[in-house]
Amino acid sequence: MAGALAQAVRLSRRFGSLRAVDSTDLTVGAGEVVGLLGANGAGKTTLIRLLLGLLEPSDGTAALFGAPPSVSGRRRVGYVPQTLGLYTDLTVAENWSFTAASFGNAGAAMPGGVAAWRGELVGDLPLGTQREVAFAVALSHRPELLVLDEPTSGVGPLARARLWEQIRQAADRGAGALVTTHNLEEAQECDRLVVMADGRIVVSGTAAEVIGDRTAIEVRCADWARAFAVLDRAGLGVQVHGQGVLRVAGQAAAVGETLATGGIEAVISEVRANLEEAFVAIVSQQAAGSAA
């Protein structure tokens, strides 16, 4: 991809016999927000560390701004790792000043969203607040690329909305963003999604393209609580979607037979899957294929 801010080409990383990342291709372009999805252990964090040059690849190549990852390239990146990258024994103001100076931005004004905690030790702050501080620090030098590993984990709904607003604003200014998340509702804020499983990218595209033609079974009945219990005992993935409405992974015939056996009358229909249902189906299918 011409002009890619970050790019992986057949990138692999082995730890002994484990292939944490396996022959992966990925690009992040200017002005786009790419969501990196996958279960724990799928290889997301390892891929990020390879792209940033924090790990050496076993095979393939990684590039930042068209060149091998380097310190000068990382200066153009705003990175929030899962560990947040903050000094917990320094105050918010000290963390801000140190990072701003490191990126040649000494004297930059601290944003109002975190200025209220300027005198607090980072280690004394709640996790959600620490994440807000880490995000503000990562944006302090107006990076060309954001790399955010679970940036909203432990953050409340309002703060999460603010963080995503800032991600979108950065993209509107031309920055690219690579974001990992387990929150599939917020994943729909991304322009493009990439799903990893067992170190490989198994699906990519817009949310609609990831869902594709996948379907779920919708169950409507008066005694939905008992229906939920019956379906759950049968090992069918079931979720509540509003009063009297259940969504079930599986085939309509199997769902209908299970409910009938439990003596439950219901209206059963096939509907288009949502992103969460599609994600579960993709990961489950990949796991089943790996086990075969």
Question: What brief labels describe this structure?
Answer:
292 residues, alpha/beta, Rossmann fold, Alpha-Beta Plaits, 2 domains, four-stranded antiparallel sheet, 13 strands, 35% helix, globular
Walk me through this protein's architecture.
The chain is globular. The chain has two domains: about 5-210, Rossmann fold (3-Layer(aba) Sandwich), CATH 3.40.50; about 215-270, Alpha-Beta Plaits (2-Layer Sandwich), CATH 3.30.70. The longest helix is centred in the last third of the chain and has 17 residues, at about 275-290. α3 packs parallel to α5 (about 125-140). Helices cover about 35% and strands about 25% of the residues. It has helices spanning about 45-50, 70-75, 90-100, 110-115, 125-140, 155-170, 185, 205-210, 225-235, 250-260, 275-290; strands at about 5-15, 20-30, 35, 60-65, 75-80, 145-150, 175-180, 190-195, 200-205, 215-220, 240, 245-250, 265-270. By secondary structure, the chain is of the alpha/beta class.
Secondary structure: elements and pairs:
Layout: E1 6-15, E2 18-28, E3 33-37, H1 44-51, E4 59-64, H2 71-74, E5 77-80, H3 92-102, H4 112-115, H5 127-138, E6 145-149, H6 157-172, E7 176-180, H7 184-187, E8 192-197, E9 200-205, H8 207-211, E10 215-220, H9 224-233, E11 238-240, E12 245-248, H10 252-261, E13 267-272, H11 275-291
Parallel strand pairs: 3-7, 3-8, 5-6, 6-7
Antiparallel strand pairs: 1-2, 1-4, 8-9, 10-12, 10-13, 11-12
Helix pairs in contact: 3-5
